[in-house]
Design goal:
Layout: H1 2-9, H2 25-37, E1 40-49, H3 55-75, E2 78-83, E3 89-94, H4 98-114, E4 121-129, E5 135-141, E6 146-150, H5 160-170
Antiparallel strand pairs: 1-3, 1-4, 2-3, 4-5, 5-6
């Protein structure tokens, strides 16, 4: 009823705060996935956010770039920024140590949240490869505070059976979103 009144009175809904506390769980889950399920973590990951025109957002972006430069020096990682066809910005990380990739993405998301732009964070994306060489992605949705599966299989098809199977197998290891209607596909992944 409250939501209905808000719509009638023209009140804007408050943005859902970004939750990054479950992001780090992918580090330990990756060990289980590789050892027990044959899903190998790839040395790449991405953080995607919606940029905005603001002096404050530019300052946060500069601090984020500085943080990434320090992280790269300490870990030997590589990173680059990329803008997709929808105008979303990506931070693409590469590092042979999967834990370094996760830690760097965690720190980057924390920086964005601390500057008050957590609502601009969309997702962190981690790529895995199965025993057949097919890609599988775990997508951490900041607004849900949980991971969703994505198994693209050519064109705009996905292997929903595999997604359901992996959610069932990993629900104790990862904070996974149980509602499939929230499992969005990211079709033009730069990973």
């Amino acid at each position: 009823m409250k939501r209905f009144l808000d719509i009638l009175l023209g009140r804007a809904a408050r943005p859902v705060p970004a939750r990054h506390d479950g992001l780090i769980a992918i580090s330990t889950a990756a060990i289980t996935m590789e050892a027990q399920l044959g899903l190998k973590p790839e040395p790449v990951a991405g953080l995607v956010f919606k940029p905005m025109e603001s002096v404050f957002f530019e300052r946060a972006s500069e601090e984020l770039d500085g943080l990434l430069r320090v992280a790269v020096r300490e870990t030997g990682s590589r990173y680059r920024f990329w803008t997709d066809t929808y105008g979303y910005r990506w931070i693409l990380l590469e590092d042979p140590d999967f834990e370094d990739v996760v830690a760097t993405l965690q720190a980057a998301s924390q920086t964005v949240i601390e500057h008050g732009f957590g609502s601009q964070l969309l997702a962190a994306v981690f790529r895995f490869t199965d025993q057949r060489g097919l890609p599988f992605y775990w997508i951490y949705q900041f607004k849900l505070g949980s991971f969703t599966p994505f198994a693209p299989r050519g064109g705009r098809r996905r292997d929903e059976t595999e997604e359901l199977r992996l959610v069932a197998l990993l629900e104790r290891e990862l904070p996974v979103e149980r509602r499939p209607e929230h499992w969005y596909g990211l079709w033009e992944l730069p990973l």
